[in-house]
Design goal:
Protein name: Cryptochrome DASH-like
CATH superfamily: HUPs
InterPro entries: Crypto/Photolyase_N_sf, Cryptochrome/DNA_photolyase_1, DNA_photolyase_N, Rossmann-like_a/b/a_fold
Strand order of the largest sheet: 1-2
Oligomer: single chain
GO molecular function, one term: FAD binding
Keywords: Chromophore
Pfam families: DNA_photolyase
Number of domains: 1
Largest sheet: 2 strands, parallel
CATH class: Alpha Beta
CATH architecture: 3-Layer(aba) Sandwich
Length: 79
């Protein structure tokens, strides 16, 4: 019976693969990588100080574009 090593790679703030140390570690040490990014509603919904939105439309667009770029990079790497 062979065993394979699977690593769940929780991606939080550093969504670029080229300099993500956790992802590079996973590539060196795991046979299978499960990349995971979770949207936390607490970061995006409601208001913060001075009754301003927690995440404005430009920041949200940047985050969504970054997630899409991350997905494309993972697909290109076969992950």
């Amino acid at each position: 019976m062979s065993t394979s090593r699977t690593v769940i790679c929780l991606l939080r703030n550093d969504l670029r693969l080229h300099d993500n140390e956790v992802f590079h570690w996973a590539q060196r040490n795991a046979e299978h990588i499960v990349p995971l990014y979770c949207f936390d509603p607490g970061h995006y919904l409601g208001t913060a100080n001075y009754n301003l939105p927690r995440t404005g439309p430009f920041r949200l667009r940047f985050l969504l574009d970054s997630i899409q770029d991350l997905r494309t990079s993972l697909i290109q790497r076969g992950r």
